[in-house]
Write a structure and sequence with these properties.
Two copies of one chain form a homodimer. The first copy, chain A, has about 450 residues and is of the alpha/beta class. The first copy, chain A, contains 16 helices and 18 strands. Chain A has a domain at about 300-455: Succinyl-CoA synthetase domains (Rossmann fold), CATH 3.40.50.261. Chain A has helices at about 5-10, 25-35, 80-90, 105-120, 165-175, 195-205, 225-235, 250-260, 265-275, 285-295, 315-325, 335-345, 365-375, 395-405, 420-430, 440-455; strands at about 10-15, 40-45, 50, 55, 70, 95, 125, 135, 160-165, 185-190, 210-215, 240-245, 280, 305-310, 355, 380-385, 410-415, 435.
Chain lengths: ~450, ~450
């Protein structure tokens, strides 16, 4: 058993600071566990014998059964004593939600040091303090103390998130929920007195439910850089890591320093480090999830040659611009492929790359092009634009695109529109093919599939 | 009366090629007019005395009343005769939807020449051929021949669109509809044998319902460049023009050449021309509408100094990065402003720029900062981030942000989340304050407000 398992798959949990008082952190967390957690839950609060129907004890030590994980949501000065109790009780892991430690000054720093000593002596693992902690959609562990009506939880899925900013993690989970983005695990580690980003990356590498690791970071600790790079470089051989860096410009770095006390360090250094590590950098959180969607559903692209297939010329032009700007290629097709297409498609279709099936495109035309071009060795990936405003397209397009995945080349779809379009888009995504609303975002996803392959197959 | 008024505000319209046959262009267009157009509608089709309840005549000339606008949706070879009939009938304008002209080769080019001669002789104005024509949400003119169930129509609003690509215009209208983006007018001009982008820009300059002109273009006609620049440069003194250029890269330009026969010309030339003209360039259609939303609701930013106000540190960092990358400034606040804020805000708030109200932010804290900083001469615009996951924020935030518009400085809001967030976002937007889902997109909107002011106030 891995020592971090206790945070994601504990058998029993005690919420220290659980309370029936509305709006309090200790209440929201207890409600989270009551609703979703499959193991045993206990409250620790000397004022109550029971909190919201959950048995409550004066201290951790009073709980009559073994406790795997303790969640601490009480004022900072009282935390060291709880950590001592946890040591006595043989608790394996603690998530310390409470703030008021090194982030507020010298007094808090001392409390942190005190805790550190105890956990090292007793081998207790700790996430926090000053964090939102852990969200695990599979086990029901959820210490994010924002109530569901403000922060929705996303569906289970292949994405794991590691965030230096708690608010960012919360925002992202809430944002992802109505969009159907599947997130299995998220960690906000706060002051990271024990568990840090590097260890979490390594842990998620071994987790079979995780297909991509997404990181928000403002800065690494002093001396951590090399280890971060080396760890990531190993992990990307089996799983993609995507990163969003906060603090890139002069004023951004200063803002990050006030926010997470992130080590300044110029962005150029980080950028070079990510590249060396094989980490794919996103330029915003939408971009982060756009790329993750492709990487968790499609095979990597074995090369940079893209087939652009469209029923809307302008969208084909925009996709081509975007792909080429990203260093990808939209190669001319060979005469032999072109002559096959010319034979099978109406004469007004534009047979080059992009292939433009024009405004009376049928589902069958898409099938013809995919079946002709994808099996060839002329392209490595397909960017398929289906503007569903064209009345001759039907739902059959979903199956035709899905069937083309048999050629084992990645396919990325772009479609823009309202309800009708979104219905079809959902059906395509239910077949595990990613759909994007703009040619630029689809192109960026293709780029990620290519770039990840480069990193994945790098020697050494 | 302007000679283009006939396309947007005709009193009577004849649909040449109107038909009861399902799925046909002539039927969709007739249905559009029947449903929404406030003037008189006639069908022209020798096969029927009536089409869908609308009186039908063998030719334009047989209609017993005056016709302002003719819409032509019949095969290309029959079009010149209809244009002659229109001349005899004294029709003022024609929208020629039909394709099969210069875009298909020599034969079609000749038909186009024939039409040109007639319209010049008789002074008939023409949009098209080979186009989707005109959509006017105010008058109900709608020649976009895609049925509502495939292509929704957006609500009335201050945006006018001029598109070289018909499919792009259709896609954009459909996409805009469920997003509540207000579009008043859209024109797809196709082969532009008469009315072109330049004349449409000038027309929209004088239209009081239009607050921003959005253009999709792949290329200008030979020799048109200087006139385009000079016209735009004049217009931007009163209204912003935003452009999305298709065909920026080598392969993109080639694709555009097959699509709209756009003159190649390197993108660098276009880019320089747009700059000289004072046209704001978008890097994708989401970006185009993001910027338009700010420009149609907020005053231009008189300078580049931005106040970033947030309750989520990470989002503040990202916004600062994005603003600075775009050449804007997030200046440190003066000691006098800081001391006022320190007095009024709790000690754990981070008082610099970004101002971080932290995870227990209240509506009142936002009000305090806006009321203190905006009236000062230290910033020109505010980017306000309100992560509504914070349970201490309420709907009052809407009014507080709205009240701050009294300082006559532009305000742009960023909020990311699910239903609860989107509800509040809608309320803020109903007060004509733009809301964006990511700090990067909000920052780009701020940039547009600044950039437009530079162009608007340029001398000469």
């Amino acid at each position: 058993m891995h020592s971090l398992d206790v945070f994601f798959n504990p058998k029993s949990v005690a919420i220290v600071g659980a309370t029936p008082k509305t709006g309090k952190v200790g209440r929201v967390i207890l409600e989270n566990f009551k609703r979703k957690f499959k193991g045993k839950v206990y409250a620790v609060n000397p004022k109550y014998r029971e909190v919201l129907g959950v048995p409550s004890y004066p201290t951790l030590k009073d709980i009559p059964e073994d406790i795997d994980l303790g969640v601490i949501a009480i004022p900072a000065p009282s935390v060291p004593q709880v950590v001592r109790d946890a040591a006595d009780k043989n608790v394996k892991g603690l998530i310390i939600i409470s703030g008021g430690f090194s982030e507020v000054g010298e007094e808090g720093r001392k409390l942190e040091e005190e805790i550190k000593k105890i956990i090292i002596e007793y081998g207790i693992r700790v996430i926090g303090p000053n964090c939102l902690g852990v969200y695990d959609a599979f086990s029901g562990v959820d210490t994010f103390f924002l109530p569901e009506e403000r922060m929705r939880r996303p569906v289970k899925g292949p994405i794991a998130i590691i965030s230096q900013s708690g608010a960012f993690a919360a925002t992202i989970l809430d944002w992802a929920a109505p969009r159907g983005i599947g997130i299995g695990k998220a960690v906000s580690y706060g002051n990271k007195i024990d568990v840090d980003d590097i260890e979490l990356m390594k842990y998620f590498e071994k987790d079979p439910t995780v297909k991509a690791i997404l990181i928000y970071i403002e800065g690494l600790k002093k001396g951590q850089g090399l280890k971060f790079i080396e760890t990531a470089r190993e992990i990307v051989k089996s799983k993609p890591i995507l990163i969003l860096k906060g603090g890139k410009t002069k004023r951004g770095v200063e803002a990050a320093a006030s926010h997470t006390a992130a080590l300044a360090g110029t962005y150029e250094l980080y950028k070079a480090a990510f590249k060396q590590a094989g980490i794919i950098e996103a330029c915003g959180f939408e971009d982060l999830f756009d790329m993750a969607k492709a990487l968790t559903t499609q095979p990597p692209a074995q090369g940079k040659r893209v087939l652009v297939l469209t029923d809307a010329g302008g969208m084909g032009v925009m996709a081509t611009d975007a792909l080429e700007s990203l260093g990808l290629e939209v190669p001319e097709l060979s005469d032999s492929i072109k002559s096959v297409l010319k034979e099978k498609l109406p004469p007004h279709c534009i047979i080059r790359n992009p292939v433009d099936l024009t405004g009376d495109a049928t589902d069958e035309r898409y099938k013809i092009v995919l079946d002709t071009v994808l099996p060839s060795n002329e392209v490595d990936v397909a960017l398929v634009i289906t503007q569903m405003q064209v009345p001759t397209l039907t739902e059959k397009i979903v199956d035709y695109i899905y069937e083309a995945t048999k050629y084992r080349k990645p396919i990325v779809v772009c479609m823009t529109g309202s309800e009708f379009t979104e219905e079809i888009a959902k059906k395509i995504e239910s077949k595990n093919i990613p759909v994007y609303p703009s040619p630029e975002r689809a192109a960026k996803a293709v780029w990620a599939l290519y770039k990840y392959n480069v990193y994945r197959t790098r020697v050494g």
